[in-house]
Structure formats: structure tokens, C-alpha cells
Amino acid sequence: MFFDYVYYRICRFYDKKNSSSPGITGLCILSLTHCFNILSIFFLLSIVFQRKFDVSKWLIVLLYAILLFINGLRYNKLNYESLKKKWENENGNINQKNNFVIPYILGSVVLFVILAIYIGSLYPNN
After folding, report:
1. pTM listed for this prediction
2. 31: phi then psi, degrees, rounded to nearest 5
């Protein structure tokens, strides 16, 4: 699965930086990108339907906490070490997947920021 590989690459990056807990960092970043993607879809729907939908900051925090919990359950069993063993021995589609990890993370962040700014400019002071 692509998200497993994203999680592995984030963990690997922080593991090379001698981070004390690359698994937790990978979990937080992966959950944040998922949250950004869900909110981007929400913003796009708001633009398409030309309707302002109020989203509470607490709802966003709750969404992130739920995503952290769900991903935490998944990557508790499928941890960094097991993924490391899997992908160190596999050479097939790794280069193809590798080319999409950084654009996926950056694209998620940039799209979210652009849409948030655009929605904010449509409905100022509310």
C-alpha cells in the first residue's frame, strides 16, 4: 500500500537523522497529510457548491486525533522495523513509489494551504 511506503520513508528519513522515535514522527506526519487531504476535499466541495461551511478548530483537532488513533492501530502492528525488512529486500516498484512520496507530502500541504487561503478570502471576517 502506498501509505505504508510513505510511513516507511518518513520513518527512514528521521531514523537517519538519529531521531529517538522515528515511528511516532512518521505516524504524526502521515496523519497530518491525511487530515490535510480530507480538509482539502471539504474545501473543494465548499467551492463547488458555493456555500460556506463552518468548520470548528475543535472539529479539526478531533479529526486529527481520530486519524492518529486509526493510523496508530495500523502501524502498531505494521511498524517501521517490519516495513524496513520488507522494503530493503524488494527492488521492483520501489523506485516508482519513491518518486511519489515527496510530491504527495508537499502536494497535500500546498493544496491545503492554497485552498484555505482561497476560502478565507471568499468569506472574510467570519
Report:
1. 0.83
2. -65, -35
Neighbours of 98 (CB within 10 A): 12
Contacting residues for 49 by C-beta, under 8 A, at least 6 apart: none
- For 64-74, how does the pLDDT look when each residue is reduced to its tens digit (9 = 90+)? 999 999 999 99
pLDDT of residue 92: 58
Residue in this structure with the C-alpha cell 483537532, named with its chain if needed: 61
Do 104 and 6 form a contact (C-beta atoms < 8 A)? yes
Q: Length of the chain, please? A: 126
Contact present, 104 and 36 (Cβ < 8 Å): no
Residues ≥6 apart with Cβ < 8 Å to 117: none
Cα gap 106→86, rounded to integer Å? 25
